[in-house]
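Trying the structure run again after the queue cleared.
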Amino acid sequence: MRFGFFILFLVCPLGFLIAKEHSEFCSMDRLCVIYVQDKTGVDIYFQNKIAIDETYTTVSVNATSKNMKSSVKLPLVTVIKGPKRKKMFRLNVNKPNKRWVYQIKYKWILGNYSVSHDPKVVYELPFEKDKKVRIYQGYKGVKSHQGDNRYSIDFGLKEGDLVTASREGIVIDTEQKNNEGGFEMKYIHSANYVKILHDDGTIGQYAHLRYMGVLVKRGQRVTAGTPVGYAGSTGFSDGPHLHFEVYKPTSYLRKKTIPTVFRTESSDAEIIAEGQLHWRREANEPLVKMVSDVEEIQICESVQSLERLGCNVTSFPSSSPIYFYVPLLKPSRYKIQISVRKNGTSIVKLYNWETNPEWWDTYLDVPFEDSLESPEGDWTATVSIDGVVQKELQFQLTSTK
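Done. Tokens:
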């Protein structure tokens, strides 16, 4: 988030200025305070140097002074539009023959604090079509989605995955030159990002993009689905992902993130949550009603520290258990049953277990050494959830690996 806090302190002795003097101080190479002094006072201007015509910047400014009086009531909260400088107020000297002193403090944030989010807008998922992505952290996530970030979403994109716009708008700010990141506060201002101004005045932010990973420019209008950059792990981040949020400023110069709804594979307007697996669906495509990622149900040789080893193979040693991996679309309490049958025989084994609502996926180990007959041969496994068959898998058990 680009915001700033700045203090300007000046002491002007008697007879210091004969002609007008123009000086400026800039915050983050973006918002600048400009003062023009003469013998009777100083004019205070502000300017967003990187703004386009559509950019709004909310500014809060205050001043303390001696032997001076402001032309407006302070503190002042106002909005600057576009890149032109705007005069905020003037500090007039009360007694020109005495010393005068002033101190200016200001904060700023990109956006207009008086706008309202359109609750009817449905957002598209911010990644390529046909890509399945897990939600790493949702609204009010305990890791980092608290306070000003409470309605942010972390999408589990990998380094270099394409990020796309969730909603139409105009690109008003980008950053792509940062190459550092980590889960430490020292990296809080090191994220690469794209900010898009929406028609209702809110701003969509796409953060933690990789170094030189921005694909759009300020002033460019984008539609939903337009590529805007590549995922990375710059800034305050514990690993590659996409941090997405929609926000507006407040009159207190804080960021107010806004809950949004998305079109998903199973809904036309859904509030997505942590642990869920989603993919993009066009408006004219039918809804998908599934509880598991059927294509990714697999048999594995081992599962260690949530890492699946030797998955998607068809031959296993009979002396070791095999592991059935079942990824869930939405964590909940499900009853899972796996039936394994040795082909051409009456040997059938049934395994049942219940998932925990906090699990994103689940797995069950199936041993074979206790079989009454030799387990070597061809087998068929049927995976069911809440009584509904999800997938059949063929596999073979051998006496040696």
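The chain has no helices and 35 strands. Worth checking whether this holds up in the mutant runs.
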